[in-house]
Design brief:
- InterPro entries: DNA/RNA_pol_sf, RNA-dir_DNA_polymerase, RT_dom.
- By secondary structure, the protein is mainly α.
- It has a domain of about 80 residues.
- Strands 1-2 form a two-stranded antiparallel ribbon.
- A hairpin with a 5-residue loop joins strand 1 and strand 2.
- It is extended, with a radius of gyration of 21 Å.
C-alpha cells in the first residue's frame, strides 16, 4: 500500500473500521502484516470513518422529484403491524429525528412503512412509495452503456463494491 502511495499510482482503498471489539469478524482471513498496515492506515485517517452528525453537505446538484401535473397525491394508510414492529419503527424514526435526517411534517400525502429483515437480524425500514412513483415524472437521462463503462476499467488494478449504510440518507431531497 505504501509503495502505491509513494509511486503516485492511482488506486482505491475501501476500509471498514471495526467498532469496539469486532476485530476478529472485520479482518477474518487477512494476514497479520496486512491487518497491521490496514489498522495503521485507518487510524491515520480516523476522521473519515466517523458517524455522520446530521444532514449530508450541500452539493452542486440539488435533487428534486418532479410530479405529474393535476394528479392527486397518494395518501395510503399504514399496514397492520405487530407490537414489536411498531416499537422498531418508532425507534428508527426517533433515531432519524435525533440525527436531523427527517423533521416532523403534516402532509396531504402519505405512504406506508414496512420492515424488512437484514441478514444480521436487524430491521431495515422501507417506505412503500409505489403509488407516489406512479405519478413521478420519469428521468430522461440515459444510462451509460455497459460496454463503454467496462472499457474505462481496462487498466484498473483494484476494484471494490460499496454498500452504503443508510444510502438514501446521503441525498438531500
Amino acid at each position: 500500500m505504501k509503495r502505491l502511495v509513494n509511486a503516485s499510482k492511482n488506486f482505491v482503498l475501501l476500509m471498514i473500521k471495526p467498532k469496539d471489539n469486532v476485530e476478529k469478524e472485520a479482518f477474518h482471513g487477512y494476514d497479520a502484516n496486512l491487518k497491521s498496515d490496514l489498522y495503521e492506515f485507518v487510524n491515520q485517517y480516523d476522521e473519515m470513518f466517523q458517524e455522520p452528525k446530521g444532514l449530508p453537505p450541500k452539493r452542486g446538484i440539488q435533487h428534486e422529484i418532479q410530479l405529474q401535473q393535476d394528479c392527486p397525491l397518494p395518501n395510503i394508510g399504514m399496514y397492520r403491524m405487530s407490537v414489536m414492529e411498531n416499537a422498531e419503527i418508532k425507534k428508527q424514526i426517533q433515531e432519524l429525528l435525533d440525527k436531523g435526517v427527517i423533521v416532523p411534517r403534516t402532509s396531504p400525502c402519505g405512504s406506508p412503512i414496512i420492515l424488512v429483515p437484514k441478514k444480521d437480524g436487524t430491521w431495515r425500514m422501507c417506505v412503500d412509495f409505489r403509488d407516489l412513483n406512479k405519478i413521478t415524472v420519469k428521468n430522461k437521462y440515459p444510462l451509460p452503456r455497459i460496454d463503454d463503462s467496462k472499457d474505462q476499467l481496462k487498466n484498473v488494478v483494484y476494484f471494490t463494491k460499496l454498500d452504503l449504510r443508510s444510502g438514501y440518507h446521503h441525498i438531500i431531497i
